[in-house]
Every structure is written in structure tokens, then in C-alpha cells.
Records
---
Amino acid sequence: MTIATIDAKIGAEHLERRAFVYIRQSSPQQLRDHVEGRRRQFQMTDWAEHAGWPKERIVVIDEEGKTAAIPKARMAFGDLITAMGRGDAGIVISLEVSRLARNSPDWHHLIYLSRWTDTLITDGETVYDPKLPADRMVLGIRGQVAIVPSGLTGRCNTAVRNRATRLEERIAKRSEASASTRPSSRCF
């Protein structure tokens, strides 16, 4: 898979810097109850590799169990902002980009900093370049919508579908295994 296959916005200048995969679930209860969401967030490292980042330049920032409601609770978010300010980040990857910051000032600061440091933002489906007015507008809207937990339904539905698929695969494997051990019903 080539870079252009994933998105033409990703250039060599981005690949020379690090890819930051941001993982977050707000509470210990979410960590227990939303295992599929956690799995999907960690799979974003695979996306970064397919996009062209070597493993040694993919950094996972894991803030699981930390709420964005308390500003100083998310120290790793501050580390991400610092890395962006230094120009170390080529892209910031999050399953849902609005999960990066749950309050408007943090979100808009992230977009502003991304714009001036040429850092891309992606959710694995769309790559946003905050230098482009249309992408900045979409990111701004997504940040405002994130304040309302309406995105929760979509994430839960995707998690349920992924879980169901894995269950179907396990059932199919068991059926195949038991079919191969059954005696033939044909009489000769």
C-alpha cells in the first residue's frame, strides 16, 4: 500500500517525524466495559505503519482512565502538545479525533498548533490538514460536537459489530472442528 493510497496529504516531511497514536478512555469503568473500543484504539498503530511510518517512529500515548474534565489529570496530553510545538509530530492519530481534547480551549489550541507546525490529524478514515480552511472548519465542528456525547452511540455500535464478528468466527471454527470429528452418516 502506498502513501497516496491512504491519503495524498501525507508527505515525506510528515513521515520524517513521529506519528503519535493517542489512546484514551475516561474512567476505569470504561476500561472494564469497553474492551473492544480499547482494542480498536490500539489498532491505530497498524494504520500508522500502513501509512508509511516505521515502528520506531510510532509513539503510543496512553491516557486510559484519565478524565478530560480535570485539566491537570492528563499529563500525556501536555506531552503531546509539547512534542507538536517542537515540530516532532508528523501526525496525531486517534480513533475519534474529538477524543483528543474534551474541552473547547484544548481542542482549538491543538488545531492551531497543528496548523503552524504542519502536523496532520487523523481518525484512520480521514486525514485532516489544519492548514487547509475546509479541514480546519470540519475539525472545529467536530470539536464542538464532541462536547455533547452523541458520538458515543456510533462508537458503541461499531464495538458491538466487531465483537459479533469475532464471535461468529469462533462459532464457525468450533463448528468446523466438531464436523471433522463426527463419524460419517453415510452407510456403505
---
Amino acid sequence: MQALKRVAQLDDIGGVVAFLASDDARWNTGDTVRGDGGSKLLRPFMRGTMESPEISYLYTIALLGISFMGFAAIVMLLREALGGHLRPFDVLFARIYMEGALIVSMGAMLPPLLMFWALSTGAVWRLCSGLVGVPLLGIALSYPARRRATTGKSTPRYVRVNTTIVLLISLTLLIDATGLLHERSGPAFLAALTAFLTFSLVGWLQALSIILVPVAN
């Protein structure tokens, strides 16, 4: 993708090489001369390369989120294999974590996708923060009611603590979406996404001892 909106010809590159090899370039030293048709102008978010630290980090988060979602499904199958039937609460529990893993994975893939629309770096981070923060806020606000409807019991204290943590993460993302964090919008998005994924993984590991206990039919 070039700003000149055409494919480079041999003369386009040859002219640059001829200049650098001539005496006219004798004052150019220790520098990099780009002959890319202005592609860097269309990729401010990528910093001129598909291997920037932010993109590599986002790919890692997306991979972890997808792996976590698959692991959650495997655990549910394992529970049935151990001879226990799935209670409605088990289904809800697995679904909540799968929803969270999906949000993390899609959120991590959004910045590279939006980069192709030639948006500014700040606009990419703000838009991603809003698109991830809204569904996380929905999970935090709706889970207590969904849990009560499934179990018929009041919301335990630890559930209120957990939903409060998710609520704080979602509010951080929504604040980031407003642009108040300015140049820190990118680190804030990455930190919030990482915090939610870490929180989900820790919560799931702590709940395994309960989930894997077979329930007699």
C-alpha cells in the first residue's frame, strides 16, 4: 500500500539507487533513504513495520484468549466424562468465561484491523477501548442478575468483588475511549486487556476444583 496509489516500477527504484551511487549523494551518510512510494505515511500506527512491539503483544494476547476459550470448552467436556452432569450454573459459568475470552481475542485483533483504514494512532486506541469497554461493562452489570436467575440464590460477596474488578477495568477502557489519557491511550488499552485476561485466567484456575467435582444424576 503506497501513498502514490500504484505499483513501483524498475525506474522508481533504479533512480534512488543511481542517486545514492552518484557523487550527488556524497553528503548522505549514516542515514536510511526509503524508496517505498510513501507507504510509511499510511501506516502511522505500525511505525513502518508489521513487527512493532504493540502488534506482537496484541497477537500474543489474542492467541492466549483463543486458547483459553478452547480450554474452557474442554473442561466442560471433561466434567461430563467424569460422570457428572452439567448444572445450569456450570453452563452459565463457562459461557461467561468464553464471552470474556472472545472479547479479549477480538479486542486484541482490532488495532491491526483498524490500522488498514489509515486511522491515526490515537483514534485506533480510542476506538478499540470503546469497542472492548462496552461489552465488558455489560458483563459486569448483568452477571449478578444472570447468576441469581440461574441459582436462585443471593449474590455472594466474592462475586460482587469480582464484578467490581471487571467494572473498574471496563471503566478504564471507556475513559481511555474519551481521549482523556492522550498519548497514554495505547498503554492503557494494553494494560486493561492484559488485566482482564489475567483476572479471568486466575479466576478460572481457582474454580477448577469446584467445576471438576462430579455431580450425581
---
Amino acid sequence: MSSSPGTVLNLDWPSTKQWFCGIGFTWRGAASRPGPSGLRRRELAELTLESLQRREERWAIVDLIGKGRHIRTVPVPNWVKETLDAWLTAAGIESGPLFRCVCRAGKPWGQSISEKTVWHVVKKTAASMNIPSLAPHDLRRSCARLCHDSGGELEQIQFLLGHVSVQTTERYIGCKQHLRIAVNDRLGIEPG
């Protein structure tokens, strides 16, 4: 496994599961994992318990203020919510910021984390997994690619990541036009 800035990680499933084991710190606070939500460092650092709500019969981060002050709703997979619940219970967090620093004794310390903290924890965890050049933003690109590879629609991935331009999302997932098998070849409206 190796990575360079601006690339998508090509991880096997156990490694992918290891990285995408929640949208924030593990319940022990050991590693930042903004993977399945595609959150930016600042969005992760500023995430509050109050922003996690039920919408359309699922958990979501609602009214997330992203880059350029754009507001979006981010769906949260059930397994991520379960990981968060374990962290919140272990940390005794009932309101406010979801993620806090953890002292050496394993207890939450302080009221929040900074986006710089997220960066340092991702870098430290990546180095321990022998991926020294991994940056937190690589996890956003990997999230986009995994969503696309599992059949996610480009527009929905754009919403998830909070991109204003679909071209940005296309760059993240490496979209290329396929002229040999064009999407408009079999619309079912051909004459006779």
C-alpha cells in the first residue's frame, strides 16, 4: 500500500475497513478516519452531537457548513453510527463536539479538536501502516472512488462531498468518457 498526494488509495478490503472504521476518532481516540463520509478536516473537527439527526429513516449529519459556507446533509452509514455511539458512551459525551483529544490514561481531554489535530493523527496512523505520504484529503478522494466503484451516482457523490462543481467530483473519481460503449447507445427509443 502506498500513496502520494492527490491520489486515490488502492487498499484491499481489510485495509479499507481499517481506514473507514468511522467518521472520526476510534472510540479510544487513536486514529482519525473521515473516510465513509468524505468530510474535510475542518468539518470533522467542528462536528457536534447535535448535528447528528434522523432524516428519512436514517442517520445523517444535517446542516453541515462546508467549504465556501455551502450547507449540505451527509448520510451516515449505520455501522459508522454504531462506532460513534461506542465512542460517545466510552467518552461520556452527551452534547457538543463529537471528537475530543484523549489523554494517556484514555480519558477525553478538552472540549474539541482542531483540524491540525486531525491532520497529525491521520499522518501518524498512516505512517504506522507504512503509508507515510497519505494526507487526510486522500481519504476524501478514496471515499469518492469507493462510492463510484460500488455503483454510486456521480451527482450523489457530489452531494456527499459538498462539491459545487461536478467537474471536481469527476477529477476525484477519475471519470473518463467511454465512446465505444456510449451511454446513449441503448436508450430503447430507436426506430424499428
---
Amino acid sequence: MGNSKWRSYGKPRSVRAENIEVSSGPSRGGVSGLRCVAYLFLMFTAAACTTTGGKVTAAPWDTPKGWGLDGYDPVAYFTDQKPMLGDPKYAYEAQGVRWKFASLEHRQMFIADPRRYEPQFGGYCAYAVSLNTTAHGDPHQWAIVNDQLYVNANVIAAHLWSLDRSGNIDKGNKNWPNILKGTDADKPQ
């Protein structure tokens, strides 16, 4: 120890991910802790949304399973504050999108005011739309902001989106019309 060129700053704290070690102490060869953290952040940011490249060529609704919100009741987010799987016996179609509801009451509420309950950006990931692209929205990664429902692709996307909700909503609102047109206008720099 006496011949070591490294000073000790107390007990080193570290996080091990596979074969990469991120340490708060001085680096002993290899990638520095700060550089490794930056690299991991970039990997997680890139992985936050599996995208479709910014072009929506199908309907403006995210319905890969044939149902809006993958069959979850859009009204339940507002009335029960949680995602609830809808029942096909309470199904309803609006603007070419099939929706399921947990109850007849929820179905009637939706029919009376669909825009109130429809997810923003066609149910696509709100974080992806803020980046001028699209990704499938996960009904379990949701938030209601200013009485509007937003969904995100996964926990990472939901977290990154929540860091600047109003800014990301503004970017999404700006990008959404161009995404629907399938243009690259206003592509982030």
C-alpha cells in the first residue's frame, strides 16, 4: 500500500454492471467512472423507445393488438386512477379504433366525450413523440397531465419524459402533426 500512487478518499463506492465497473473513486486504468456513467446514460436513453423511425404510415392510432390501449379501459385511468383491462362485451368503435371498457358506465362516459378520455398522440409513447418518432405505448406506463392521458413505452421512457413533462408535451404537440404526415420536418438536431 505504501507504494500506491492512488489516494484513498474513504471507502470506495462502486456499481458493477456485467463486466463494467463504475466507481466514485479514482480510475485505475480503463474507462473513468464519469465516462462510463455517461456511456450507460446514453445507452439507456437510446433504449428508452424502440422507434419506428418517425414515420407513421398506418392509422394515427397505436393498435398493434387490434384495440386502443391494448384493450385497457381509457376511462379507468381517470375514474379509478389505474389501468384496467376492458371487457369485450363493453366494446365500442370510434374513428376506426376499437376500445374496451370495464363497465357499461365507462363505455357511456367515453361515448359522451371521447376526446376527454382518448390517450394523447394516438396512444403512442409520449417520450418518443417528443423526440419526433413513435414507439408502442405501454398502458401500464401512464400519466394524466392537465386532464389528458399520456402513455410511454417503458419505465425508462416514462422516467425520461417525466423529467420535463411540460417541455416534452410541447415538443410532442409540435412533432405530432408532422409524424402523422410522415415528414421529417422539425427533426430534432
